[in-house]
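Last lecture ended with a question: if I hand you only a sequence, what can you say about the shape of the protein? Today we answer it with a concrete record. The protein is Glucose-1-phosphate cytidylyltransferase. Below, first the input exactly as provided, then the predicted structure, then a couple of comments.
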Amino acid sequence: MKAVILAGGLGTRLSEETELRPKPMVEIGGKPIICHIMNIYSHYGINEFIICCGYKGYIIKEYFANYFMHMSDLTVDLSSGDITYNNSKAEPWKIMIIDTGYNTMTGGRIKRIKDYVGAETFMLTYGDGVADIDINKLLEFHKSNGKIATVTAVQPAGRFGALSIENNMVNTFMEKPDGDGTWINGGFFVLEHEVFDYIKDDSTIFEKDPLENLAKDNSLSAYKHKGFWSPMDTLKDKNMLEDMWQKGEAKWAMWDL
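The predicted structure:
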C-alpha cells in the first residue's frame, strides 16, 4: 500500500520558516516534519510513498536524493574521488517525488498522481500534521465500512483560556480547555480509486466539492481519533512540537528514536 503526502502548498502562515523551504521540510528534532509523518506510516509497515510537490519542490527532491549520504558516515578519497558509505541508518522507503504544479489545489495534486497509485486502496495525508494514530486500526475501520473514503476526525484542544463570567465576575478560569466537541478534518485519509471521479482538475480543492459530494453520496466515513494530533500551521505550533521532542514527549513518535 502507498501513502500519498500533500507537500506542495506555500505555507504562508509559517512564513518565518517557509520563505526558504516548503513547510514539510521545516525541521522538528533535526529532521523535516515530513520524515516524522513517513515514520508514522513506516511503523505500521507502509514504506512506499508518493510526495506531491509544488512550492520549492526541488528542496524535497534534493533532500531525498542525498538521504542515504546524509544518514551515513563517509570515507572520502580525495585523490580518486571515491566515496565509501559506512554505518548507514537509512529507512527502507521507496519514494516517488512528483511535481504536481506550483498553483495546483489539493484535489488537483491528488488527481495528478492517479496513474502512480493504480487501482489499489491508498493512504493520503497532509505534509504538516502528526498524530499517534494506529494506521492498522484506521485501515481496518475503512475496510469494514466499505466506503470510497475515510477521513480521520480529531478534536483539537482549545487555543485560548476560557472564562465563565457572571455579574462581571470570573467564576472559573481554564487555560486551554478541551475542544468544544466539534470534530474536524485531521488528514490521515484512506481512499479507494473511485475518489478520482470526484476530482475535476487542478483548480479543485479536495476539502470542498470532492469531500462534500462524497458525504452527500454516503461514501465518506469518519474514523474518530481521540489521541494526540497536531498540525504545524504556525510558528507557535512548530515551537510546541519542537519542545515536546526535546523533552522526550513527542507522542507521535512511536518508532525507535
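Comments.
1. The chain has nine helices and 16 strands.
2. The mean pLDDT is 92.
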